[in-house]
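STRUCTURE:
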């Protein structure tokens, strides 16, 4: 009887670990690909403002570190959703965007101190120590909405897993 319970517990633990790893992978992949898309499009907007021809390659970029940083959303978004569930959508995405700023600042600072370089160095007048850009607030709010929706979708996908 004890062995049966132990066996069930180990199977449950393995399933739970697989779900956690898969959700981390899904959030990491979502963030990674969204960032590549965002940089491809925003770079073309910057070219347009400088009277340069559009780059039809739409080449975006990211950093390997970003996969792991975006993967953190698999832990943080469900917590934020529980805490903010009674707030209006606009307030929720605003507060989540502030959380994204905090994660971006902390991870940028840590990467800068451990590797000697922050992969994203902002130089606009809206930057905070080069780690975050305050003018990205609307983009982060939109991404916060995507994260909320993705969290619900991923949970539904993983129910049967």
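SEQUENCE:
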């Amino acid at each position: 009887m004890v062995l049966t319970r132990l066996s069930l517990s180990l199977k449950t633990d393995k399933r739970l670990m697989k779900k956690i790893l898969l959700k981390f992978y899904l959030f990491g992949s979502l963030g990674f690909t969204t960032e590549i898309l965002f940089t491809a499009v925003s770079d073309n907007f910057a070219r347009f403002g400088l009277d340069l021809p559009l780059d039809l390659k739409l080449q975006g970029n990211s950093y390997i570190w970003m996969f792991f940083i975006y993967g953190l959303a698999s832990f943080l978004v469900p917590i934020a959703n529980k805490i903010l569930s009674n707030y209006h959508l606009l307030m929720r995405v605003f507060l989540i965007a502030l959380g994204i700023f905090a994660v971006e600042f902390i991870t940028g600072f840590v990467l800068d101190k451990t590797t000697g370089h922050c992969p994203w160095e902002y130089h606009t007048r809206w930057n905070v120590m080069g780690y975050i850009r305050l003018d990205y607030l609307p983009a982060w709010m939109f991404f916060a909405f995507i994260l909320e929706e993705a969290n619900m979708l991923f949970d539904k996908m993983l129910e049967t897993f």
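REMARK: Residues 90 and 141 are 8 Å apart (CA to CA).
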